[in-house]
Design goal:
mainly beta; Butyryl-CoA Dehydrogenase, subunit A, domain 2; 2 domains; 9 strands
Amino acid sequence: QGFSEPNSGSDLASLRTRAVREGDEWVINGSKMFITNGVHANLYFVAAKTGPGKREVSMFIVEKGTPGFSVGRALKKTGWLSSDTAELVFDNVRIPAGNLLGEPVPHLGQGPDRGWLADSPRSERATGGEPLTVLR
């Protein structure tokens, strides 16, 4: 999954990668860092800002070989050699509108409109008889 970015880590509110809707396509610009198995993957799930607010983030599917998308250098790591970690670069990457997962997310806040993040496996985990998303 393409969350982590240079200078912001995996803080979704600080993403700099942007996706802009242009007709029947989304245009993605930005970069990702520390993507596990990024060198060998053929399909990438990428988080990008889709609006001006800090919490307007959506997920997209980007296929390897899409024009403008490149897998940068494999990053050298200490102690974790069982999988590669790579940098991903998006330079005016055009993807079909259907590659958006779900609907554009207005915000990642709490409540019924908290977006795709609430549909993750974490929302299915329960403790004390309540889903974790309810206990936040």
